[in-house]
Amino acid sequence: MTDPVPPLVHRKKPLQARSALTVAAIGEAAIEVLLAEGIERTTTTRVAARAGVSVGSLYQYFPDKHSLLAAVLAQHLTHVAMAVEKSCTEHRGAKVADMAQALVHAYVSAKLEHARASQALYAIAAEHGGAERVEMARERMLAAVSGMLATAGDRDFSDPSRHAAILLGAIAGPVRNLLESNRHVMPGDDLKEELVTLARAYLLAASTPC
Amino acid sequence: MTDPVPPLVHRKKPLQARSALTVAAIGEAAIEVLLAEGIERTTTTRVAARAGVSVGSLYQYFPDKHSLLAAVLAQHLTHVAMAVEKSCTEHRGAKVADMAQALVHAYVSAKLEHARASQALYAIAAEHGGAERVEMARERMLAAVSGMLATAGDRDFSDPSRHAAILLGAIAGPVRNLLESNRHVMPGDDLKEELVTLARAYLLAASTPC
Amino acid sequence: MTDPVPPLVHRKKPLQARSALTVAAIGEAAIEVLLAEGIERTTTTRVAARAGVSVGSLYQYFPDKHSLLAAVLAQHLTHVAMAVEKSCTEHRGAKVADMAQALVHAYVSAKLEHARASQALYAIAAEHGGAERVEMARERMLAAVSGMLATAGDRDFSDPSRHAAILLGAIAGPVRNLLESNRHVMPGDDLKEELVTLARAYLLAASTPC
Amino acid sequence: MTDPVPPLVHRKKPLQARSALTVAAIGEAAIEVLLAEGIERTTTTRVAARAGVSVGSLYQYFPDKHSLLAAVLAQHLTHVAMAVEKSCTEHRGAKVADMAQALVHAYVSAKLEHARASQALYAIAAEHGGAERVEMARERMLAAVSGMLATAGDRDFSDPSRHAAILLGAIAGPVRNLLESNRHVMPGDDLKEELVTLARAYLLAASTPC
DNA sequence: AATGAATGAGAGTTCATTCAT
DNA sequence: GATGAATGAACTCTCATTCAT
After folding, report:
1. Distance from CA of B203 to the nearest CA of A (A)
2. Is the model's pLDDT at D42 over the cut of 90?
3. Which fold has domain A71-209?
4. CA-to-CA distance for A33 and A51, rounded, in angstroms?
5. CA dihedral A124, B139, A107, B183 (to 10 degrees)
6. Nucleic strand F within 7 A of Cβ D162
7. Is residue D151 over pLDDT 80?
8. Which end of chain A has the smaller Cβ count within 10 Å, N or C?
9. Taking CB atoms and an 8 Å limit, are D38 and C172 in contact across chains?
10. Shortest CA distance to C185 belongs to which of D150, D135, D148?
């Protein structure tokens, strides 16, 4: 939108245990307020109150509201990206069917594990330099997935980067729908199963035998 | 978040040509401001200014900011949902491969046709009762798609409604990623082609021959 | 308050019958809106709508909102003042007991006859140059009453003007209370009777036999 | 008009001395602005400015404009009501002539003591739920006065509650007239004297000897 | 370090008034 | 003459941010 990717610095390094706890509490509180009140009513005062600290303290740890929300978003994105990266690293050289299953599990589990946060953060993603951060996380995952695809033991991919992009998007879409629809239409395990079918079918269709 | 689906009424019926133009201009302006400034800076005053009318006029046509954004979102969602419904109706009884292609074309074209609007509206979708409206549009499309799947000439689906949900999500995900990443990584036609592959592969994998 | 007594001119003389009707309708509408919505929500548009005319028409007859409300107030005040003047003229030379009765009847009847208007107008009286107009009406009534008292056939008043002021205030107070308390505690006739007792007692106490 | 009696809560308890001073300053300022500019121009911003604080501070102590004005009105009404109650309690069992004098003194003194506030508040009384509050204050005073009348040592009242209502109204009317007419026609002491005459005359006329 | 009262720019919304039709 | 869409100043209220305590 308007702003370049801001540096995302904390005003202080939360070296002491106390500080770290406070920062964590504020992050939690932000998500809760986001879910309970919506972005427009997510104010620094309300977040501080929910976290049980004063606004002043909040500003001791985050230079402004922007940074607070960006930090919360970044943390979540990093969590998911790392889960994907780990899984991709572990399945280099595997068969595509296994890659598909592993990727779906890694991604969906990481998302559903923090379902509430995920849901809340879709709202931030569109603002606060969120788009850039989301983009960056996607790049990381894309690199990991296309790297993995290129090493598939049983299939060749003509354009691993493109296939990775479609694959990730195709997995993320239904997950997002599930998280955003309040009444959870489908249990997480069914979702995973169905997405494994999807991922496997796509990867096979998009590749040729070695 | 907090509010139920609001009635989405215009304050006045835009019967006269002049009014209709003004309403349209305001809608356009809302999207432009949304894209240029982000939601937080999308104020009624700015939208009115961009539309070349006074705030007062804006409020003559929309009871409040909420309704304005909701109306813009609703218009877009309806456009896409109708395109999908039309395509599904036309392909009842067809082969799944054709269904897949038709659905992808219909959805992606409708989205890319109003790419700017699409992109801008993801931000609204999370607020302003947007979630409910998005949900409703999804229901319409789901019904259309699962209805179509059930009539496939060459395959049987055990649970058309579930498959429809996954399919739509899987198509929407990559489209969304494309729209949200500012630098358009992939041309629209390539995207369609790849999604057709995805959709066909999934539908075949998820069904059994008649 | 801030402004001197404004000239209270209509923009046009309502010579034609049509105009006179419209003016009257607007006046009525103003009172209704005042009662139904309170001053703060008494807008020119609402008054015009209630009167069944356009805002534009309202402004054809009244130069501004101020004048409209002032005119409505003035009309009511004049009505009451005239009733009092008439009664006072008719009872010059009478006995104070009869004067008291006549005055109470005239004043209370005039007020209760337009109870709704009376009630609504207390709100205007404090603004819109209302104070001055109320003052002027009081002067007229004061002059009439003290003029009458001075001619009493059976008693002498040392300071008719002061006695008139107290008398009028003492009658107006309970009437106002009755009108302002929504649940009408006392029937109008009981009020009159009680006020006659009050007025007679005061006038006798404040005067000496001839 | 539209609303029930609002709870009249301050947003924060003005426990600290500083806060209490600020709240008081805002109340004072409200009265001054009311007198200087009239209700329509009595805006929260102007009141805050006159009080020497920011609008934000005003809203820290009063949830909305409504409550601010209501609080100021309530304070004044309570002051007067308490003065009347005190006087009535002290004159239970007294002779009606003494009761009359005491009541007039208590009421008129309380009003004139805060003449400016009194005058300003007549304007609020008609709006902002003022009517209800005024009504409540009147009830308190009515109860006190009729309770006192019932204990009169030298006279019997057939309907103390009705007599109390008329008496209070008859005293309030002239006081109001005096406060509202800018040029003070009559000194306060003369007014009191005249009202004592009025009150005594009425109470005697409305009662019978024991 | 922590607090939370104070600030004031800025948002949403209304409404008296005008004027092209 | 009548209409009512358009205007934009002004109002109420919120909230990110600061700083004296």
Report:
1. 9
2. yes
3. Tetracycline Repressor; domain 2 (1.10.357)
4. 10
5. -60
6. no
7. yes
8. C
9. no
10. D135
Plot region of C152 (φ>0 → left; ψ -120 to 50 → alpha; else → beta): beta
Write out pLDDT tens, residues A93-102. Answer: 999 999 999 9
**What pTM did the predictor assign?**
0.86
Q: State yes or no: chains A and B have 3 or more CB pairs below 8 A.
A: yes
* Least confident range of A158-172, B183-197, D93-107, D148-162: B183-197
Domain C17-63, CATH: 1.10.10.60
Least confident of B31-40, B42-51, C199-208: B31-40
The pLDDT tens digits of the residues spanning D52-70 come to 999 999 999 999 999 999 9
Which string of DSSP letters, residue by residue, matches chain A? --SPPP----SS---SHHHHHHHHHHHHHHHHHHHHH-GGG--HHHHHHHHTS-HHHHHHH-SSHHHHHHHHHHHHHHHHHHHHHHHHHHTTTS-HHHHHHHHHHHHHHHHHHTHHHHHHHHHHHTSTTHHHHHHHHHHHHHHHHHHHHHT-SSEEES-HHHHHHHHHHHHHHHHHHHHHSSS--S-HHHHHHHHHHHHHHHHHHTEEE-
Q: How many CB atoms lie within 10 A of CB C156?
A: 12
A122-149 mean pLDDT: 90
Q: Which letter does DSSP use for residue D183 in this model? A: S
- pLDDT for the residue numbered C210: 85
Backbone dihedral angles phi then psi of residue B93, each to the nearest 5 degrees:
85, -5
Touching C: D residues 2-41, CB under 8 Å: 2, 37-41
- Closest approach of D60 to chain C, Cα-based (Å): 24
Give the architecture (CATH level 2) of D69-209.
Answer: Orthogonal Bundle (1.10)
**Residues of B from 110 to 129 whose C-beta is within 7 A of strand F: which are they?**
none
Question: Helix-strand-coil percent breakdown of chain C, rounded to 5?
Answer: 75, 5, 25
Domain boundaries, chain D: 17-66, 69-209
Pairing of strands D155-157, D207-209: antiparallel
Bases of chain F below 7 A from a protein C-beta are 1-20
pLDDT digits (tens, 9 = 90+) for A152-186: 999 999 999 999 999 999 999 999 999 988 666 78
The CATH class given to the B72-209 domain equals: mainly alpha
Residue A34 beta carbon within 7 A of nucleic strand F = no
Q: Say yes or no: Cβ of D43 under 7 A from any atom of strand F.
A: yes
Least reliable range by pLDDT among A120-129, C52-61, D99-108, D198-207: A120-129
Q: Residues 58 to 87 of C: which have CB under 8 A from any D CB?
A: none
Q: Considering the domain D17-66 in this protein, what is its CATH number? A: 1.10.10.60
Region of B80 on the Ramachandran plot (φ > 0 left; ψ -120 to 50 alpha; else beta): alpha
Q: Which chain A residues have a beta carbon less than 8 Å from that of B126?
A: 39, 122-123, 126
Do B1 and A190 make contact, defined as CB atoms within 8 angstroms?
no
- The partner residues of B98 in beta bridges, in order of sequence, read none
The nt closest to C59 (CA vs C1′) is E17
Tell me what pLDDT residue A5 has.
46
Q: For an interface test with C, which of D157, D198, D200, D203 has the most C Cβ atoms less than 10 Å from its Cβ?
A: D198
Q: How confident is the model at residue B9 (pLDDT cuts 50, 70, 90)?
A: low
Q: Which window residues (13-72, chain B) lie with Cβ within 7 Å of strand E?
A: 41-45, 55-56, 59, 63-66
- Token pair of C20 as six digits: 């006179």
**Residue D3 pLDDT level (bands cut at 50, 70, 90):** very low
- Residue D173 above 50 pLDDT? yes
Name which residue leads in pLDDT, A188 or D194.
Answer: D194
Distance from CA of B14 to the nearest CA of A (A): 30
D91 and D6 in contact (C-beta within 8 Å)? no
Name all chains with 3 or more CB-CB pairs below 8 Å to chain A.
Answer: B
